[in-house]
Amino acid sequence: MIDRSPETRESGFENPTARLLAQEGYVVVRDILSTREVDRIAAELEPHFAATPRCVGDFHGWKTTRMGAVLAKSTTSRILPLHDAIWPAVEEVLKPACDCVQINLVQATRVHPGERAQVPHRDDEMWPWPKQQGAPWMINVMWAIDDFSEENGATRLWPRSHLQELDRQVAPQGAIVAEMPRGSACVFIGSLTHGAGANTSVGDRTGIIVSYCLGWLKTYENQYLTYPPAIARDFDPELQRLVGYQMHRPNLGSWNGQDPSVLLGEHDAHPAFKDALPPAIAAELRSYYASA
């Protein structure tokens, strides 16, 4: 079930989740993981949470625990990035601005009791360059591993703020709280103002952030170090590509002039460089040489 935001307008996207993302900046998609799937993810991550110290810093939080390399720590979590309730909308929104979409990060977060509300921010601030409105660079998905409530620090979102300039002093009463049962997901544009809420409850609130961005951007989490070939070989081919084992045409992210996916199998140590060009550019080059 999708929570539809008010005053929905038509957009150029066919996918209903993509349309709502463009219009409101966020969508809550409820109950898309089974109880068994959520339980398995939680169990696989629990030893890692127990071993990980709390964050240090005003942004990451002093009473919050965060972990990267989630896809290596929880094999069940590998169902999240390409989930059919989420991925088609992500690809439809981001793909027009790039040759291929990539994972920006996969991060598990646990907000502990007593944590204050996070400062309102936009995640695409990590790329310090003006963004053209209507052409997003990033989409984030917060997956609920616990029930998300206002009391335990559910994400606060300012609807339609992705269509406005960033205001760090945005009015709290303008936010909605992404309350949702475990197994649900909150999807939002990277330029939407948001922040984790204060945890005034007596329990932890655990979620997993899957963040996607345009394939030509530098990612928050270095995917090749996080998922080196020895780990990525166990991923499904589509997930291998999503974490970066593919070239972004023209010729970005190569290894020895090859698509980096060759590192996942037998490969030549001294290969010939090969063009990786978008069809339009390849056609321009052929036309140029044909008329020379």
Number of strands: 10
Give the N-terminus to C-terminus distance in angstroms.
Answer: 58 Å
How many domains make up the coordinates?
A: 2
CATH architecture of the largest domain: Sandwich
CATH secondary-structure class of the largest domain? Mainly Beta
Please count the helical segments.
Answer: 8
Q: In percent, how helical is the residue content?
A: 10-25%
Topology:
Elements: E1 2-3, H1 16-24, E2 26-29, H2 35-51, E3 64-67, H3 70-73, H4 87-94, E4 101-111, E5 138-144, E6 155-157, E7 176-177, E8 185-189, E9 194-196, E10 205-214, H5 223-226, H6 229-232, H7 237-242, H8 279-291
Antiparallel strand pairs: 1-2, 2-8, 3-4, 4-10, 5-8, 5-10, 6-7, 6-9
Helix pairs in contact: 1-4
Key attributes of the depicted protein:
7-stranded antiparallel β-sheet; 2 domains; alpha+beta; 3-stranded antiparallel β-sheet; 292 residues
Please characterize this protein's 3D structure:
By secondary structure, the protein is α+β, with helices and mostly antiparallel strands. The protein folds into 2 domains: 2-242, Sandwich (Jelly Rolls), CATH 2.60.120; 247-292, no CATH class. The chain has helices spanning 16-24, 35-51, 70-73, 87-94, 223-226, 229-232, 237-242, 279-291, and strands spanning 2-3, 26-29, 64-67, 101-111, 138-144, 155-157, 176-177, 185-189, 194-196, 205-214. A 7-stranded antiparallel β-sheet has the order 1-2-8-5-10-4-3. Helix 1 (16-24) packs across helix 4. The protein is globular and about 70 Å long.
